[in-house]
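BUG: 3D viewer hangs when loading the predicted structure for this chain

Environment: internal workstation, default settings.
Expected: structure renders.
Actual: progress bar stalls at 90%.

Input used:
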Amino acid sequence: MKTDNLVEIPITDKRVDEICSKYNYDFPKITARKINDYLLMGMKKVAESCPSLMEKYTTAMTLQERRKEEHYALLLKKKVSGKKLNKEENRTLKNLVEYAELHNGQPLYERNKDGQMVKFKYEIITTHTARRSGVTNLYKTGLLDTRDMMSISGHKSEATFEHYIKMKKSEHADRIAEKLNSTPNSLDMILGNMSPDDVRKLLKKVL
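Structure tokens produced before the viewer hung:
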């Protein structure tokens, strides 16, 4: 896993147990990059019937994307200058040109007026997105404390773990309100079902 820490997670869903049993708990080795390639293909297909996945969001450019765009710019410059491209360069340039035209590339990736890279939502969903969402959704349930959740995510640092929880201020407010509403008022716990007259008598004795 990402943290390189061995974790033990209880299986409480029969569907997960069936998948694990199918592989005898010995899953095929696959890189995160390959998984994300498959995930991208799948999400692109789902986006055809899910309009929200076609919405565009700003996202940080990865080192790999930066290098890819720089390579694209170099190939374009070489092509425009009249220099001959080899077979591999021609194939790469053709694919990158098609990508740039499809994504309003500037030069390769689309950017907004502030120069930030923009992508379709389905393009920015990765295994790490699922990791963040899993931590956030688990936190929202309120069922487990921080230590329990960290034992699942594999984080050793609470500060790092906190970065994985993505909630709006309004969501925090709703969470607090829900807890307060589900907890009996301390005064109510003390007074119970006492009538107003009994309360007044009690206050007189106290004061």
